[in-house]
Each structure stands twice: as structure tokens, then as C-alpha cells.
Amino acid sequence: MRTIAHIDMDAFFASVEQLDFPELRGKPVVVGGNPFKGRGVVSSASYEARKYGIRSAMSSKRAYRLCPHAIFIKPRFARYEQMFWHIAKIMLKFTPAVELASIDEAYIDLTGTERLWGDPVKTAMKIKRAILDKTGLVASVGVAPNKMLAKMASESGKPDGFVVIRPEDVRKFLDPLPVDAIPGVGEKFTENLSKLGIRKIGDVLNFSENVLISIFGKAGSFLYYAALGQDDRPVKMEHTRKSISHESTFDEDIEDIDELRRKLLTICDHIAERMLKERMLGRTITLKIRQWDFYTSTRSTTLAIPTRSNKIIFKNAYSLLKKLPRAPIRLLGVSISHLIPSGENPEELFRTSLPEDEKLMKAISEIREKYGTLCIRRGFEIE
Question: Looking at domain 13-76, which CATH architecture does it have?
Fold first, then answer.
């Protein structure tokens, strides 16, 4: 029997802002776009803001209408990523079986750690306390026999929760929950299930797997086994990253090529900095644009020699941008794929030092690591 813990940081982005800026504590904080400019959305909301009905993915304008005295803050993704790596290091001290599911959540397989740490449930509590003691941030934790149940447990205990689902308590936990509490069951699926009288997870088991498959296809099989509380997915300790990307949604549509060029340069800087930190090189550069009418397109180019140079990434991305038809753009993004660890690049074997642009990016990254992401920026980024 496995013991899996799901660690989910409470209101992570907003909590980091309240940690870094004590004057924000106890106040409704919304991390996201400016409610007075364009089409900003909420990335995270403190629990003080959630009392007013503000939720992630909500438009910033609607969030402002719900709580006019909320404090809106522009996201600092590099800072959140930095903080989560600190949290990951805490988890890894207890076991190497850690899967980073996103920037604010992780799965930990505590099976077999008894000889080192004792009862796995108590170990999960130690991890929760260690995160608070070392970072000042609060995590909700779910402990269960598999990943799905552990995630549902942590969600049910938010905020600052610690919920344990033991094998003998699975039905007691699942049956009364609404069916959309199952991860992956969305709004449309929930509507279709409601037509069959399936509103709670326990209702699913009134139907056989074959009947559910005949109605919903593969999704029916997924639903059946989820309702049984079964999930065989392992905690993945190693991740093969397929790409590194960054994109920006603008407050107002941009058509001016010089303004787009400046936005693109900032995006490419961000990607190059991440690649340097992760010691990766890439060959395929992909540009993504979303026009004013939501038409989305991508263009790619593949390099002969892998790179992480911001100059080379920008040069190729800008070349792709100039070839696209001119139209107002609401979103601009870049990704680089076909990644390899930097040590596997034959071109590096005869290099004695980093290229000048990589030296500069490394120095900038170290300064930001120490003093914060806003301490050093390109001139045109400063308003």
C-alpha cells in the first residue's frame, strides 16, 4: 500500500507578495493584470480577497467590481519560481521521490520511508511544518493511498489543511463529494453527468463501467475508476523537459513593430535566463501570436547548433515575427524545444569560458536572485 502526500501552497503568488511586503498582510491582495488597463486576469488572490468571491482566472475588472479596495499587484513569476525551488529542496530532504506538478504543488511518495522518518503521516506533517518554519508560507497537505486522492484531500482542507484518507475511509470521503471534485471533471462534463442523475461521486457507481464507456467513451472509464478511488500513476522523480517557454498578454493590442520588438526582447531574456539556470540548450525556436480576434498562430525555425543565447533566440524569433502579416496582437510568446543538457553539446567541449552574452545573463540572474527580479531591467521596461 502506497502513501502519497500532495503539497499545495495556499494562494501561493499572493502569499509570497504578503511575505515579501509585510504591509500587505491581512489585506485583500490580487496578483494579476491592472483592472484599469485592457484585459488583465487574476493569477492568484489572497484569502482576504477570496472572501469577496475573487478567484483565479477571473478578469481583473470583475475582481475590482467585487472588491474595489483590493490591492492589485503585477506578477513576479521569477520570484515565485525561486521560492518554490526553496520549498522543493525542503521536500527532497525527506525523500527523493518528489514530483513537481506545477509552480505551487508537488506529490511526494512516502512509501518505504518509515525506517528513516517513522510514520509517513507524521512525516507529511513534518514537511508541512518545515515549509512554514523555513519560508513563512503555508501549505495544505493531503495524504492518501494514491495521487488523485491525495490531491482531493489537500483541496478539501484548504486553507492550511492537513487531511488524511486511509484506505478504509475512501468511500466515506468520496461518496458525498460533488462529481466535479474529481480532478479533470470540468463544467461541460459535469452538466452531461447531471442529465443522468450523477451529481455526487457516489452516484457514478450506480452505472457499470461499460455503460459509462458507451456514453462517454474513454472518459467514462476514467470516471468509473476515479469514483472507485483508484489511481495507479506513479510519482515521477525525473522529468524530461520538452520545452522552455514564456508569453505575455498585453493590456492593449499592439500593432507597432518597434513596440512588439521590445516586448519580444524581454520575453527572450526571460527564456535565456531560465535555460542558463537549468543548464539547457535548445534548437527549435517557436513564436506564438494571438491576434485581436483571438486567431492564434505559431511559426518555428530549427538551428543547426543548440543555443541558450538571448541574442540568438531573439534574432530568430524576431525574424519569424517580421514575416507574419501585420495585425493588432494581444499575446506574444516564445518557446524553445529539442532541449539537451548543456554538457552534451559538442560545441562546448573546446570552450574555456562562457560567451559574453551568457556571462552577462549569468551576472544579471545572480543579482536578481539576491536582490529581487525588479532590481535590474532593460531601460525601456522602466515606466
Answer: 3-Layer(aba) Sandwich (3.40)
For 268-283, b/e burial (b = at least 16 CB within 10 A) is bbbbbbbbbbeebbbb
Answer yes or no: 347 catalytic: no
For 161, which DSSP code?
-
User: What is the signed CA dihedral for 251, 255, 260, 261, rounded to 10 degrees?
Assistant: -160
* Per-domain boundaries in the chain: 13-76, 175-228, 243-381
C-alpha cell at 181: 471534485
For the segment 303-327, what is each residue's pLDDT rounded down to a tens digit?
Answer: 998 998 889 999 999 999 999 888 8
Are the C-beta atoms of 347 and 305 separated by less than 8 Å? yes
Q: Supply the CATH classification number for the domain 175-228.
A: 1.10.150.20
Task: Give the residue among 125, 160, 170 at the shortest CA–CA distance from 139.
Answer: 160
What fold, for 243-381? Dna Ligase; domain 1 (3.30.1490)
Q: How far apart (Å, rounded) are the C-alpha atoms in residues 116 and 114? A: 5
Highest-scoring range by mean pLDDT, 51-55, 57-61, 182-186, 276-280: 51-55
* Domain 175-228 in the same topology as domain 13-76: no
> For the purposes of burial, counting CB atoms within 10 Å of the CB of 250, is it exposed (0-12), middle (13-18) or buried (19 or more)?
buried
Q: Give the pTM.
A: 0.72
- CA 245 – CA 271 distance, rounded (Å): 6
Q: At what angle do helices 310-323 and 257-278 cross, to 10 degrees?
A: 140
Whether pLDDT at 370 is above 80: no
DSSP assignment of 354-381: --HHHHHHHHHHHHHHHH-GGGS--GGG
- At 365, the pLDDT band (50, 70, 90 cuts) reads low
Active-site residue, from 105, 247, 344, 381: 105
Lookup: cell for 77 = 513569476
pLDDT at 127: 97
CB 48 within 8 A of CB 28: yes
Query: C-alpha cell of 210?
Result: 461499460
